[in-house]
Design a protein that fits this description.
heterodimer, A: seven-stranded mixed sheet, four-stranded antiparallel sheet, 50% strand, globular, B: mainly beta, five-stranded antiparallel sheet, 60% strand
Chain lengths: 115, 115
């Protein structure tokens, strides 16, 4: 158990809908990262927040957005969902903001299915 | 842009044999190289990492080697066991706008250990 929690575990929704995924980082960690993993694909970095502020953006679609709250939990919002958005979404956390200095610990993921 | 190539994509070994997974990176400034193990239905788990000031690191049956000149690093698993069966991801830090680093992940290696 990494100490990173994600809810829900599974989510099934229809095209065009909007969903929110939630992540709580490990105690003491200030950075939260979101990754997308499609079927048999690698990990695609979406976005990073550090202590409430956006720090880095990866291949995140404009239909997706995220935020980190004062208690450091984070939410990833996915809107106007398409079939291709079906994937595993992982949250990770680390103590600091530099991805080259601090270990990232991953949560168990949320499996999103868009029908 | 920055890239991490990982080989092989699949690896099948007999229990007790050794397994080696290799990664190459493109950013000569990379200084942090973690390895993750992802079991079916779970999030990636950090199993070992190495920094650029070290050439080799061991943890029980797992070792990682780094060749900065050739820009490649490898994961070695000795005396493999069925529970080592999983997908393994390598990653390397790379420079990012804003003056800090991001992690670039390889595409993954599916390791199967047969009893």
């Amino acid at each position: 158990d990494s100490g990173v929690t994600q809810t829900p575990k599974h989510l099934i929704t229809a095209t065009g809908q909007r969903v929110t995924l939630r992540c709580s980082p490990r105690s003491g960690d200030l950075s939260v990262y979101w990754y997308q993993q499609s079927l048999d694909q690698g990990l695609q970095f979406l976005i990073q927040y550090y202590n409430g502020e956006e720090r880095a953006k990866g291949n995140i679609l404009e239909r997706f957005s995220a935020q980190q709250f004062p208690d450091l939990h984070s939410e990833l919002n996915l809107s106007s969902l398409e079939l291709g958005d079906s994937a595993l979404y992982f949250c990770a956390s680390s103590v600091g903001q530099d991805q080259g200095l601090y270990e990232q610990y991953f949560g168990p993921g949320t499996r999103l299915t868009v029908t | 842009g920055e890239n991490v190539e990982q080989h092989p994509s699949t690896l099948s070994v007999q229990e007790g044999d050794s397994a080696v997974i290799k990664c190459t990176y493109s950013d000569s400034a990379s200084n942090y190289f973690p390895w993750y193990k992802q079991e079916l239905g779970k999030g990636p788990q950090l199993i070992i990492d190495i920094r650029s000031n070290v050439g080799e690191k061991k943890d029980q049956r797992i070792a990682v080697t780094l060749n900065k000149t050739a820009k490649h690093f490898s994961l070695h698993i000795t005396e493999t066991q069925p529970e080592d069966s999983a997908v393994y991801f390598c990653a390397a830090s790379a420079g990012f706008s804003g003056g800090y680093n991001k992690l670039i992940f390889g595409a993954g290696t599916r390791l199967a250990v047969h009893p």
